[in-house]
Write a sequence for this structure.
């Protein structure tokens, strides 16, 4: 899957109310800003949300699609979990099982919960190392120490 297809999929999911996809779009926007390479599809998505906030008074988290509802138990950002998994699996040389074990050891993530997240975010596996590192967010530091450095 190309990066443009991945972004289109995220936008589709975010428009359907998937807050995790909207969070991922925020990270992708920051990645584009950091690289000084705008992605107009991502910017259009956020421009529509900002317009709803400014002109219709919709709360900003709802307008941007990032509104969350409280759930029981510990909550992990699924995008960060999936990015860490793919970094471990693809770039650290761990297999699928070992990558799942590392997620549990590093972050205390339940194996079944991690597998569900990874399955839902499987297209992320085709992303490059730099973008996966960016998407790993707050979880990046521990995974970084396991990656080979050039």
């Amino acid at each position: 899957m190309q990066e443009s297809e991945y972004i289109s999929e995220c936008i589709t999911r975010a428009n359907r109310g998937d807050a995790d996809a909207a969070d991922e779009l925020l990270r992708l926007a920051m990645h584009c800003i950091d690289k000084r390479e705008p992605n107009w599809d991502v910017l259009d998505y956020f421009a529509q949300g900002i317009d709803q906030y400014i002109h219709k008074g919709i709360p900003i988290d709802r307008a941007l699609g990032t509104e969350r509802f409280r759930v029981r138990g510990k909550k992990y950002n699924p995008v960060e979990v999936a990015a860490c998994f793919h970094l471990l699996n693809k770039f650290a040389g761990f297999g699928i099982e070992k990558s799942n074990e590392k997620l549990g050891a590093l972050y205390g993530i339940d194996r079944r919960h991690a597998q569900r997240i990874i399955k839902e975010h499987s297209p992320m596996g085709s992303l490059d190392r730099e973008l996966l590192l960016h998407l790993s967010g707050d979880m990046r530091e521990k995974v970084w120490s396991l990656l080979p450095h050039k």
Summary: Residues 91 and 147 are 7 Å apart (CA to CA). The radius of gyration is 16 Å.
